[in-house]
Amino acid sequence: MVDNDLHDLGFLGLRYTWSNNKNGSSKIWVRLDRVLMKSEGLRLAPLVIVKHLIRIASGHCPLLLNFTPITRNSRSWLRTLKALFFWSRNSLKDLGELKLSLEGRIEELQLQESTEDGLSEDHQLELRREAGELNATLARLATWWRQRAKTKWIEEGDSNSHFFHLNASARRRGNIIVEIQNSNGDKIFDQKLI
């Protein structure tokens, strides 16, 4: 599936899509049926929903594929996301300006401190207060950048993205045992025997 850029869309509803319709311990439930979509399709229809409907005359559940259009609420939600993006960017700008302002004031106070007269008690308190505020601002900036890094992973590492599948495929390939050598020195390739 990964090699063909196909992604399982998941589902809502019943857990299994097929039953052998037997009773007791011989009853089998399996999720055989699923909907796969290429990345381009997911890009064009990001809100697609798969629902497992109830079985009536067959062992298989019918699958309902719903391409949910962007509704008025979704548009409102998208506007809110856009507003949050600009708010976040302005917050960073404000934090950056605050950082520069605090650094400038601390530099002034430290220059004054290095003169013969030194700092008055009030200015020493101000210097400590400004240094504490600068540390808090730097911590907030670091948090902002750390969150942005997580957002980048989420954007490029989402479970339905090519980026994620390349990483998962590389890990899966590294976890596969292709051959094994027994105590007699014979190589075994059969996956069942491995």
Automatic annotation (TrEMBL):
<dbReference type="InterPro" id="IPR036691">
    <property type="entry name" value="Endo/exonu/phosph_ase_sf"/>
</dbReference>
<protein>
    <submittedName>
        <fullName>Uncharacterized protein</fullName>
    </submittedName>
</protein>
